[in-house]
């Protein structure tokens, strides 16, 4: 969901996990001139066609081929638990974005899937406090953003599995603790 805390959570996890890097879907938006406009004049940013998804997949595959040379900082993470000591051979890529599970070429890549949710009113409130370039036009949230969120969420629920839903109204600390603990358990499984 837009403004659910995806980037904040990813950045906090990166500080705690060894050899961790982030690829953000926001870095793959097409320029405004290439984004379609609907009959109401809304720029259609909340659809897959507004993104260079093939480039994103290529970036993820390039990282996977050579994570050690991907520019990942290998310094000791902050507050690392004992289970993550001596993890020079562990590389973690966090891919964060709003339409990740609706793009079939990505679905075979995930070890874990997290999906942040927000109720309509909280989402709209948070969205109204952000400044976008280009700026949201009046009615954009209700006319495009929220309907596209619901559409893609329904699609995702029909086609994707093993998704951990996270309540975006919880504190950043609660969300971080939940996901961090889950990742630690996943790393322990992979190391066995």
| Percent of residues in beta strands | 5-15%
| Poorly predicted residue ranges | 73-77
Number of helices: 6
Kindly identify the CATH topology: Rossmann fold
Taken together, the total number of domains comes to 1
Distance between the termini: 34 Å
Query: Which class best fits the helix and strand makeup?
Result: alpha/beta
Task: Estimate percent helicity.
Answer: 40-55%
The SSE string, one letter per element, is HEHEHEHHEH
What integer is the average pLDDT?
89
CATH homology group: P-loop containing nucleotide triphosphate hydrolases
Q: What topology, given as strand order, has the largest sheet?
A: 1-2
Could you give the count of β-strands? Answer: 4
Largest sheet: 2 strands, parallel
Q: Which CATH top level class fits?
A: Alpha Beta
CATH architecture: 3-Layer(aba) Sandwich
General form: globular
Radius of gyration: 18 Å
Key terms:
192 residues; alpha/beta; Rossmann fold; two-stranded parallel ribbon; 6 helices; 10% strand
Description:
- With about 190 residues, this protein is α/β, with parallel strands linked by helices.
- It has a single domain, classed as P-loop containing nucleotide triphosphate hydrolases (Rossmann fold).
- Helices cover about 40% and strands about 10% of the residues.
- The chain has 6 helices and 4 strands.
- The strands form 2 sheets. Strands 1-2 form a two-stranded parallel sheet. Strands 3-4 form a two-stranded parallel sheet.
- α2 links the parallel β1 (about 20-25) and β2.
- α1 (about 5-15) crosses α6 (about 170-190).
- Pathway: Cofactor biosynthesis; NAD(+) biosynthesis.
- Keywords: ATP-binding, Kinase, Magnesium, Metal-binding, Nucleotide-binding, Pyridine nucleotide biosynthesis, Transferase.
């Amino acid at each position: 969901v837009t403004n659910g805390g995806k980037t904040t959570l990813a950045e906090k996890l990166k500080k705690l996990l060894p050899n961790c890097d982030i690829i953000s879907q926001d870095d793959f938006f097409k320029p405004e001139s290439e984004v379609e406009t609907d009959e109401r004049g809304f720029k259609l940013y909340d659809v897959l066609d507004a993104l260079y998804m093939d480039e994103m997949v290529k970036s993820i595959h390039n990282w996977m081929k050579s994570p050690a040379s991907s520019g990942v900082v290998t310094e000791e993470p902050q507050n690392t638990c004992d289970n993550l000591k001596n993890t020079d051979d562990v590389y973690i890529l966090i891919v964060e974005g709003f339409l990740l599970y609706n793009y079939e070429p990505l679905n075979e890549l995930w070890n874990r899937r997290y999906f942040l949710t927000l109720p309509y009113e909280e989402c709209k409130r948070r969205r109204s406090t952000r400044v976008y370039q280009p700026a949201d036009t009046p009615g954009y949230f209700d006319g495009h953003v929220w309907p596209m969120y619901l559409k893609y969420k329904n699609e995702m629920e029909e086609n994707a599995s093993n998704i951990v839903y996270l309540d975006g109204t919880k504190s950043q600390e609660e969300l971080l603790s939940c996901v961090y603990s889950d990742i630690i358990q996943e790393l322990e499984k992979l190391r066995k």
